[in-house]
Design goal:
The complex is a heterodimer. By secondary structure, chain A is mostly helical. Chain A has one domain. Chain A is built from eleven helices and no strands. In chain A, helix 2 packs parallel to helix 9. The longest helix of chain A is centred in the C-terminal third of the chain and has 23 residues. Chain B has one domain: P-loop containing nucleotide triphosphate hydrolases (Rossmann fold). In chain B, helix 3 links the parallel strand 2 and strand 3. The longest helix of chain B has 19 residues. The chains are: A mainly alpha, B alpha/beta. The structure holds guanosine-5'-triphosphate (GTP) and magnesium ion. The site of magnesium ion has 4 residues of chain B, from helix 2.
């Protein structure tokens, strides 16, 4: 799965998926595996649900679940995501990642209708967050909803795992196992999140501690990662 | 990123025409400044801003490794409106941010150009890396590679993509040469040879003549960029290598868009 590769040139290498804020905020390094599991079953699912609803809205669903009710627009999905992501620092970072993904996706799938909708939306409404762009990519590529959830969770966990190697001394093999464990922990949630069709369905399982760390991190003058 | 594949929508974003041709006059010249740690990249940018700030509209992006110190240094130097200086995080990989994944820098350049439209020049400082770090042409239109005399007189001769093929090589801090036992003229001659006579400037911020030379080079580059005659070059990750032949061989440098000068023998 191309998208889930940290080497993809879309700007992800400067992000730590909230890991650097957590470590600088006082989380112990040996808590990282548990933190990854926690993230995969909370924050990552907000992102995943947003991606799934976006994909349905943009007509990419091939699993017979149908699209959201008429009248739902992309702006409603973005609003639902923003309401579930209260920290401005995290929303800014997500929008930056979204721009990077969009830039890449427009190059890879220039003619996909989903990309055209995003481009049209981007100008009047401001930059779209990562989860929405991932959803559009899922629509453009016909990715099934369950895989969209898994992809979003994996992308998040792998971003943190790659950043971890720059932040803490450890054997690079260890985080690879933790990523697998985090993805496995998310697996029981996959059907529920994959069945989201309306913006209201998107899980509201954010993490206030993560939000707090993100805000503190954004004020630091010494950091390796954007967020 | 394959520029030939951009559609009109992304063309508006990236500043490229649909057929992949550059649209030079449409935006600022993006000028990269790379080179090892501490050679004076930030100082050189401050010097350029001081020398050209009155006639050009300039923006600066820094790529710090651990801190936003370079951005703060430049803001405090008072050579440019602090708002026009932005710092970009590089995830501990300054090399990646200017070459393998230039997204963060490109977005920052687009933002600066949008927020202060119109700009003439956007200077991007690479985080201090090693001799192999050079900018991708997907990010910058032209690049300066900086060395300093304190790094030793031999460095220029040793070569590397930035030394060999950046648009301009600066040998900086020439005022220190007597203290570190470096013969500047020899170092410049070595550099010129390694560069097959591409531009070299021996610079010291305390030597006005050298600053004028740097200033003239930047203005010249801006002119050829605007007129569309300058083609962004990729210095490449690879050092030029030597091919033996009966005449003694030739240096083979992989510059795109330039005929290989195989008649050039050593
Ligand atoms: N003597 C002398 N010192 C200089 C000159 N230019 C810069 N320096 C000094 O060299 C040191 C490093 O300069 P910077 O401009 O911070 O170098 P840099 O390449 O940006 O450093 P990094 O961003 O950390 O890689 C500072 O102490 C400067 O004052 C010069 O022309 N002459
Ligand atoms: Mg510097």
């Amino acid at each position: 799965m191309l998208l889930a590769d940290a080497r993809l040139p879309s700007g992800g290498h400067a992000h730590s998926a909230s890991l650097e804020p957590a470590l600088l905020g006082g989380m112990a390094a040996d808590a990282v595996p548990a933190w990854l599991v926690g993230r995969a079953t909370t924050v990552s699912l907000v992102e995943a649900g947003t991606a799934v609803v976006t994909a349905r809205l943009l007509g990419g669903s091939r699993d017979g679940a149908g699209g959201p009710p008429d009248g739902v627009r992309l702006a409603d999905v973005v609003r639902a995501w923003a309401a579930r992501t209260p920290a401005p620092a995290l929303r800014d970072a997500a929008r930056l990642l979204g721009r990077g993904y969009l830039r890449l996706a427009r190059n890879l799938w220039p003619d996909a209708p989903a990309m055209r909708v995003l481009a049209a939306h981007d100008a009047p409404h401001g930059q779209l967050p990562r989860a929405v762009v991932l959803g559009a990519i899922a629509a453009a590529t016909g990715l099934p909803a369950a895989d969209t959830v898994r992809l979003t969770v994996y992308d998040d966990a792998q971003t943190a795992a790659s950043a971890l190697l720059k932040l803490e001394p450890l054997d690079p093999l260890a985080p690879a196992r933790w990523v697998l464990e985090a993805c496995a922990a998310a697996e029981p949630h996959v059907p529920r999140v994959a069945s989201c069709t309306t913006p209201e369905d998107i899980p509201a399982s954010g993490s206030p501690q993560t939000e707090g760390w993100a805000q503190a991190h954004a004020l630091l003058s010494q950091r390796l990662f954007r967020a | 990123m394959p520029d030939s594949a951009v559609d009109p929508v992304s063309a508006a974003v990236s500043g490229l025409l649909p057929d992949g041709a550059p649209a030079p006059a449409a935006r600022a010249l993006r000028l990269g400044v790379a080179g090892p740690v501490g050679v004076g990249k930030s100082s050189l940018i401050a010097t350029v801003c001081r020398a050209l700030g009155a006639e050009l509209r300039i923006g600066v992006i820094t790529n710090d490794i651990y801190t936003d110190e370079d951005a703060r240094f430049l803001r405090s130097a008072g050579v440019l409106d602090p708002e026009r200086i932005r710092a970009v995080e590089t995830g501990a990989c300054p090399h990646t941010a200017i070459r393998d994944d230039v997204t963060a820098n490109l977005l920052a350049a687009e933002d600066l150009e949008r927020d202060f439209d119109p700009l003439d020049l956007v200077i991007i400082e690479s985080g201090g890396d090693n001799l192999t770090a050079t900018f991708s042409p997907a990010l910058v239109d032209a690049q300066i590679f900086v060395l300093d005399v304190a790094g030793g007189g031999d460095v220029a001769r040793k070569g590397g993509p930035g030394i060999g093929r950046a648009d301009l090589l600066v040998v900086n801090k020439t005022d220190l040469a007597p203290h570190v036992g470096v013969d500047v003229a020899q170092m410049v001659a070595d550099a010129s040879a390694a560069r097959e006579n591409r531009a070299v400037v021996a610079l010291s911020r305390t030597d006005d003549t050298s600053v004028a030379e740097l200033r003239a080079w930047v203005l010249g580059m801006l002119n050829s960029f605007r007129s569309g005659t300058h083609v962004a070059q990729d210095p490449g990750p690879m050092a030029p290598h030597f091919h033996a032949d009966e005449d003694g061989g030739y240096v083979h440098s992989h510059d795109e868009g330039q005929a290989h000068d195989h008649a050039h023998t050593h």
